[in-house]
Amino acid sequence: MSRAIFAEIKAGRGVDGGVWFDATGVPKSLLETTYVDTLRRYALAGVDISSEPMLVAPAPHTSLGGLVIDAQCRVLRADGSPISGLFAAGEVTGGVHGLNRIGGNAGTEVLVFGRIAGDSAASFAKMV
After folding, report:
1. Distance, C-alpha 98 to centroid of its chain
2. Nearest in space to 57 (alpha carbons), one of 19, 30, 106
3. Vertex 105, ends 82 and 103: CA angle to 5°?
4. Which residues make Cβ contacts (< 8 Å) with residue 8, sequence separation at least 6?
5. Is 80 helix (H, G, I), strand (E, B) or coil?
């Protein structure tokens, strides 16, 4: 969604650095049952998305780390060689999902890559 909003802004169809989001055609009952948290969050800011459009713009919600890892979760130097004994997983790493992680994948990423990093670190510790 952010990419589409950015494309609209870049094409000159934006307004004040954003675009208008209009949910006024969505039945309020659907918003109240399916998007209750969204309704509540914007209501706290004085916006009723069921009755008025709102200006939205892409913005970073997290800052993912820049450590590059390999398949064993070893941290890599700029030249691609592993740093001996240094392993990483989770949001301290970058690039696992591309430029940003897919929304909702943080927990799975930590479990999967945390397990790999832990197993790799344990194997390394046995060799030292």
Report:
1. 11
2. 19
3. 120
4. 14, 19
5. coil
Angstrom distance (rounded) from CA 94 to CA 109 = 11
pLDDT in tens, 78-97: 999 999 999 999 878 876 76
Which residues contact residue 45 at a Cβ distance below 8 angstroms, ignoring those fewer than 6 apart?
none
Confidence label for 127 from pLDDT (cuts 50, 70 and 90): very high
Q: Which of 9, 21, 27 lies closest to 54 in space, CA to CA?
A: 21
Per domain, the residue ranges of the chain are 2-56, 74-127
The yes-or-no verdict on residue 63 having pLDDT over 70 is: no
How far apart CA 94 and CA 46 sit, in angstroms, is: 36
Please give the Cα distance from 113 to 119 (Å, whole number). 10
Strand partners, 67: 93
Containing 21, the helix (H) or strand (E) segment is: strand 19-21
